[in-house]
Amino acid sequence: MSLEDDIIIENYLRETLSESENKDFLSRVESDSNFKKKFLLEKQLFETLSEDEWSFGNHNPKDINGYKELFESAETKDLEKVIRNVNNDYQKPKGNLIKWLLSSAATIAVLVTIYTLSIKPTSNEELYTAYINKTELPSLIVRGENQEKLALAQQYFESHEYDKAFEIFEKELEIVKNNDASIYLYMGISQLELNKISEAEEIFDTLIKSDLIDAPKGKWYKALLYVKNNNIDKAKQLLTEIINSSSYNSKQAEKLLQEL
Fold this sequence. Notes:
mainly alpha; Serine Threonine Protein Phosphatase 5, Tetratricopeptide repeat; 2 domains; 0% strand
């Protein structure tokens, strides 16, 4: 969106357009989907915030306390979901960045989004969820032996039907030659997601003590287990071991340790 678009939307909301301009504006809202999204966001901001909050361009950018009050206001927090949904629509090339930032509502969207995304998770459960989702598990679908059963188990796992997935993985582990570290990981995480903490810990310990190439991965997932179970002292100890040995996911371990 151009600066001119921002101005005309503001003028429409302030009811300062002429009759013909008003007619043209409504016609464009109906025909231009991107313009309509922009207008609906501005309208939401205009109707939700007070005049001073909506006219964010009047604030001094150096007034940090002003920003903080705006971020923490109940009205702004209510807009978080709206802003997240439309945020991608306002990504602009660098050359248009200055003009875009001049839009009062767009500026609010940028600042609030940055602020809310930078907030650390408020619980260990959220930390666990964040980091378990960042960690990629190897696909089992491409494996030749027992391919169909493992593929089905992975589908159950990805559909969050962890009990069904675990049942298949447990049987396949007895069949797969040399045991497969990936199956241990899927089994352990399945038990974790079912809140069977002690069973999951036993599985990860088995992997850690094995001579499998991917055995070090067990420590990372065991650390996440401790985070999920609010056993932060043990989690920190295990993360420190991973970092000191430059083991699997040591970089992620550093970040997670800082957040605990």
